[in-house]
Design brief:
Elements lengths: L2 E5 L16 H10 L9 E4 L14 H10 L6 E4 L2 E3 L3 H20 L5 E4 L21 H13 L4 E5 L6 H7 L5 E8 L17 E6 L5 H19 L3 E6 L16 H19 L3 E5 L5 H17 L1
Parallel strand pairs: 1-2, 1-5, 5-10, 6-7, 6-9, 7-8, 9-10
Antiparallel strand pairs: 3-4
Helix pairs in contact: 1-8, 3-4, 6-7, 7-8
Length: 308
């Protein structure tokens, strides 16, 4: 497998309030683990800046104008109780989305089989018109729409294994049968969405897990709900919202997964990408707040992307 990794130094310059779990050290931990010898074959790319007009594929222009207007010249701007912006936040968003879109181009133009975007801020909680959950722009949603608009993708599958439900992605695609959204997540937990009966236009497949659930329950959710839904949908492109906060060390939740579980899930999604989508798969970093757990899990995920 040919695997590219996109990142950019400005993603370290998006700053939250002191003590905030979504901190630059998260990205440093991922970058450090990817320096190991087993990752020598990775092709590392600098994320380009996205044209902000492309954000309108997932968000209305007045929302984007409001978010951009909140970016401060100095200090921090508080957007909600746990979401803030700093002077470099907008540029970090441009690079995060730019890396994702470059990855989409790479897999559709056959330069890479798959791509991992080591970027921040995360995006999957950003709804059409609401920034929340550390997220300003929904990167994975923009990438899905971009694949449809530029590359003619007819059926895009988004799989989210972050421990927190990707309410923003669900919100954006809730009535869109051309995009399947499947999510494993802990319930009850922030943001409070993700119940089994949230099915959209028959394109939403939530698989909630309970506090204390571990490998067995996670794999059962994949085998019984997520993987059959994707297989039946027959996507021509697969996107992953790769949050690693379901790891047992993570301080923000109570699932008991290990790095091996993320390796396993990644392999299963790659199998379906090979079956239906000519291997086309792009993965975006979302959550993961214990640095050791994040590093181990992201390393296992990328290693599986490389190995096939």
């Amino acid at each position: 497998m040919t695997t590219f990794v996109y990142s950019h130094p400005v993603c370290l310059e998006h700053v939250n309030m002191p003590g905030h779990p979504e901190r630059p050290d998260r990205l440093r931990a991922v970058e450090k683990v990817l320096q190991a010898n087993i990752f020598d074959a990775l092709e590392r790319k600098e994320a380009p800046q996205a044209d902000p007009a492309v954000f309108e594929l997932a968000h209305p222009s007045n929302y984007l104008e409001r978010i951009r207007s909140l970016i401060p010249e100095t200090g921090l701007a508080q957007i909600d109780a746990d979401t803030s912006a700093s002077p470099k936040s907008w540029e970090a968003v441009l690079r995060a989305v730019g890396g994702a879109l470059a990855g989409v181009d790479d897999v559709f133009e056959e330069r890479a089989d798959n791509v991992f975007c080591a970027v921040r801020p995360p995006g999957h909680h950003a709804e059409k018109t609401t920034a929340m959950g550390f997220c300003l722009v929904n990167t994975v949603a923009v990438a899905a729409r971009y694949a449809q608009e530029k590359h003619g993708a007819e059926r895009v599958a988004i799989v989210d294994f972050d421990v927190h439900h990707g309410n923003g992605t669900q919100d954006i695609f809730y009535e869109d049968g051309s995009v399947l959204f499947a999510s494993t997540h802990q319930m009850p937990l922030y943001p409070g969405t993700g119940a089994l009966n949230e099915t959209g236009a028959g394109n939403i497949f939530n698989a909630p897990l309970r506090d204390g659930d571990g490998s067995e329950a996670f794999k059962a959710a994949f085998r019984e709900r997520v993987l059959p839904a994707i297989d039946g949908f027959r996507p021509d492109f697969v996107l992953i919202s790769a949050g690693f906060d379901a790891h047992y060390r993570d301080p923000l939740a109570g699932l008991e997964l290990t790095a091996d579980d993320f390796d396993w899930a990644t392999g299963k999604l790659m199998d379906l990408a090979q079956k239906h989508a000519q291997n086309r798969l792009v993965s975006l970093l979302e959550g993961g707040y214990d640095l050791q757990g994040l590093a181990e899990s992201a390393g296992a995920h990328v290693n599986r992307l490389m190995r096939g």
